[in-house]
Amino acid sequence: MHITIIGAGAIGGVLGAYLSRSGQKVTFCDIAEDHVRKMNETGLRIEGPEETFTISCKAYVPEKLVEQGESLEIVLLCVKAQHTEQAITQILPLLNEKSYVVSLQNGLCEKQIARLIGAERTVGCFVNFSADYLEPGRILYGGIAALYLGELDGKISKRVTHLQEVLSCWGPAQVTDNIWGYLWGKMSYAGLLYATALVDETMATVVSNKELRPTLMELCSEILEVADCEGIHPLGFDDWEPELVYPRKKRDSTILDCQLEKLAKRMASNRKTKSGIWRDLAVRKRKTEIEQQLIPIVEIADNYKVNMPLTIQLITQIQEIEVGVRQMDWKNLYELKELYEVVENNEPKIR
Length: 351
Fold this sequence. Notes:
This protein is α/β, with parallel strands linked by helices. It has helices at 10-21, 33-42, 62-68, 84-91, 109-117, 158-167, 179-196, 203-207, 213-229, 253-269, 276-282, 290-303, 309-322, 330-346, and strands spanning 2-6, 25-29, 44-47, 52-55, 58-60, 72-77, 95-103, 122-127, 131-135, 138-141, 147-151, 174-175.
């Protein structure tokens, strides 16, 4: 089995390192030339909560990988959502009829990949462990969290169960017949994480703020309402439980508060206390994936005539931070809260 990691940053770097250390044949590919050079010269270093280790590896930039001309067997696609089409297009000449691509990305990228290479060569994956690219050849790993593999049509295939077995060198990879449920569950969680990045604070601090919770849960409900319209049953993971958030009329604030305290405690215990979204904005000074994650959901919502005022406001705020016309600040969250209260006071209570 030959595994190619496309995007050897946080997620791809961690999984590729564990796979390589377990004896799998792994090739890394990344667009960052300095990262590729460092990996080839001194290896890839993973700094985790339980251990720190370095593997020797072979890495290429995409152009050099294509020049090798070797057919790819299993591709773990770990690039940012906005780079999906470019990454797939570059490796397309190396894919054969038996090749398949597993998306370990944020968003609903499986839809885009399936359009480019066919659903039969696309495998879904939900991954929630945290990691950060620190510098060339060096990645911070937050620790084990949920990872589910699944075919897009819900069948439990041999290739998925085999990949689960291979990934056991990393941790408890699991197989699901409802990968879309996990992906939409994570989209609702993404809404919460984008909100935490409106302020220069830890995720746990924002989630622990009870004054803001009704606003944040309504934000997540907007996304879950769209999933409901699509006929998807979102699933929970790692102390995030969509069923406690939506449908709104079934929400029990006492039970939900208890669950959110668990979530905040989990967030506080992670080595990575701020999200990758925060890191994109505050450290790497680059655009987030919001255009590929939340904007498509707003577009889907339009088809069902579902209003998403908080999500739209959040998108605007994040995009303004991206271009420097807005700063991270608690007042951003309180602007959302003000909008939430206006909407609540004007919406008929039929939800």
